[in-house]
Structures are given as C-alpha cells and as structure tokens.
# Entry
Amino acid sequence: MDRLIITGGKRLSGEVQISGAKNAALPLMASTILCKGETVLSNIPKLKDIMTMSEVLANMGAGISVVEGNCLRINTDSLINREAPYELVKTMRASVLTLGPMVARFGCAKVSLPGGCAIGARPINLHLMGLEKMGAKITLSQGYVVAKAKRLKGATIYCDISTVTGTENLMMAAALAKGRTIIENAAREPEVEDLANSLIKMGAKISGAGSTVIEIEGVDELRPINYTIIPDRIETGTFITIAGITGSNILIKNSRYDHIAAIAEKLRETGIIITEEGDALRVIGPPIGTLQPADVRTMPFPGFPTDMQAQFIALTSMASGTSIVRETIFENRYMHVAELKRMGANIEIEDNIATVRGVQRLLGAPVMATDLRASASLVVAALAAEGETIIDRIYHLDRGYEKIEDKISNLGGDIRRVKGGRT
Ligand code: EPZ
# Structure
C-alpha cells in the first residue's frame, strides 16, 4: 500500500489549482444512463472513485474514454441492464446512484446494497422510499436491491433527513417519470444543483434545485450533452486549512466562493485571512502559534460541511485555546482523532462532540488513514508537525484528492509518495 512521507514546518507559497468536484462528477456520470448517445464531461478529477464509477458503467456496456486528462466521453448507445455488482459497490457507495437512472431507463435495476462504511451505517432507506412512492416495486435479495417499474410516475416525496445522493437519485428517476414529482426537504448542496443544471441541459424540466423543494416534470426522452462540472469545495476548504496551519500565503485557483461561504466564515474566526481575487482565493494563515480556537457544528449545506470536520479539527489542534466541534451528520466520523493524538493533539470525544484543546506543537509520527477526509486531516497536521510523519493506507486519500502530493510539493511542501510498503 502506498504511503505519504511528510516533513512538517515548511511555510508554503504559490498557487494551487482546484480540481473538479468528485461529488458532482459521480452523479453526473450516473445520469448518462438516462439517455442514449455520447456525453462529454469536462473538469473531471482523476480519482479512484471516478475509475470505479467508470467500471460500474462499463460493466453495463457503456463505452468510456478519457480525453486530454480531465475529460470523459461516455457512450451509452449499447447500454444493457446489468446489475451494479457487490465487488464494485462495496468499494464505492456512490454506485447506488445508478439505481434511479436504471429504473427510469430500463424499468428495472439491480444494485448491491452498499454496506456500512467507516463513518457510519449510511442506509439508503430514503432512496428506496422515494422510488416506491414513484411506483417502483422494491425487493431485497442476497444483498441486492431490485427495483422494478414499467414506468415511474410522479409523486410528492418528503425526505425526513436531507440526503445528498438520495435527492440526486430521486431527481434522476423523476426526470423520466410520467407526471410531476416534488422532493421536499431536498438536499441543497452545490453538487445537487450541478446535477440539476446538467439534467436541464439534457432536456429535463426541473425547478427549485438548490432549495429544499425541487419540482421535476417528467419527460419522455433526454439527450446527451457536453458539460463542465463545478470545482471541489471540499478540496478548496482543505487547502485553506493547510495554509492556516502552516502560516502560509497561497492563491487557490478555480474556486467558487458561493460554495464555500460557510467554510470561509468559520475559518476566518481562527485568524485565517481569505479574500476573493476573481475566481481565486488569496489565503493567508496567521503567524505560527497565533491560530485562534473556534466552535463548529456540521450541518447540511449551506452550513459548515461534515466533509470539512476532520480538517477543521486538525487545524484547531494547534489553536491557542479550546474549540468545540459537533458532528451532526454521521455517527462515527472521529476516527482521525486517535491518529491526531498520536501526533500530540489534545482532543477528547464524548458522544458527537469533540473538545479540541490546542497545543503549541504537533510531532511527526507514523499514522494511518481510516477514511477519505480523515486522511486529509492527517496531511494537514503533518504539514505543521515537527519532524517526519508517515501516513499509511493513503488509498483512502486517493479516492478524493487528485495528485495532492504534487499540488503540495508545488507549494513548497516537503511531501513524497512511497509506492508499496517500503518507506
Ligand atoms: C454525500 O453522501 C457525500 N457523498 C458525502 O461525501 C457527504 O459526507 C454526505 O453527502 C453529507 O454531505 C457523495 O456525494 C458521493 P447523505 P451521502 O445521504 O449522500 C442519513 C466524501 O467525503 N441517510 O446526505 O451518502 C445518513 O446516514 C463523502 O466525499 C439516511 O438515514 O450522505 C446520514 O446520517 C463522505 N437514509 C445523513 O442522512 C438515507 O436513505 C446524510 O447522508 C440516506 C441518508
């Protein structure tokens, strides 16, 4: 398994280009199932999860080619109704995003139930409830969900929890349903809005995306499109915390301020200066040792995102005071804390609350990545820690960050990847 070796304490400088958003790319790739023809998606990050979704689509007969690095051509002329197999779904839960489009296009879908994952049980009951409301017959057999419907029909669906991929799955299914669907308490994340915008370009009739009530008037047919996805707001936030903890002055290019407003507001409280420069952000971290503590509660968009919680804890582990973090979205999203404590952080967890007592310094140590954003928090901490940190199991990191060691090296960070188990 690859490892990252990081020697902390360097002040960074220069520019970093943010990649396309993983969590926008995945539903958009799944949406190509909804129509025949060739879709061209641009600004697609080169990530493990993108490769996995490509495998899921190829397994169904889609023709996929990578053009000039970050552009995907997906041809679904010869798509056949094949299940999304367990061995693929278990590596990436977002494969469940093929469920809605497959029922809508083929009238039947068979997708492995995603197992739990490190950060929580993450059930898909709301996805299934919504499809049932639209007339699908749902059965579970041998770990697979089977959904059948001659043609889905519009329905009013109330999600008692706002679910990002649930909203996306139901919006895609409703796009080809007969009649009007209303999704209430819909997720407002920018990735949901990006999917809606691409579906509208395909010919779907959707209004309200980005708000908590989305209306979809089903149509009979959609057409393939060319589309460029939004930048990754979580990668942007991650690089802001990197600049903050290392006292650096960097320019973050290709970012959408409206997608990171809550992140920026909260991180400004710690003393980080963030100013917009066109489609870039100028980020200046406070001098080492002067980071301020701040309290945060993770919330659905437009609140502070759960995907930034681990990076925020790493940052405030070196603040001059105590920060209180409440994780309200997932039930087990503090696995990075044990690893950060190995580096000298002083953090206590009780229920869903982390009490982060800032320390003067972190010390490099061998640590282990446990999930995608936990691994990002270890990189943040290692860049400020004294000495060398070895981060193991960075396949977690590769799921969501494109060429992160190149990006950090280009900023002057001392980071290298070691292939396999050798250090
Ligand atoms: C999406 O996951 C993201 N993944 C996650 O990003 C992100 O952390 C999460 O949204 C929250 O913002 C993708 O977009 C591919 P949810 P998702 O459904 O859709 C409960 C990353 O780091 N729930 O919004 O799976 C669920 O258990 C990943 O990039 C149900 O109870 O999350 C959770 O407590 C990690 N039943 C809450 O809702 C359901 O049917 C929010 O989950 C669905 C969800």
Summary: The chain has two domains: 3-15+232-418, 23-218. Residues 23, 26, 94, 120, 122-127, 161, 163-166, 187, 191, 305-307, 329-330, 372-373, 400 surround EPZ (CB under 6 Å). Residues 233-246 form the longest helix (14 residues). The longest strand covers residues 3-7.
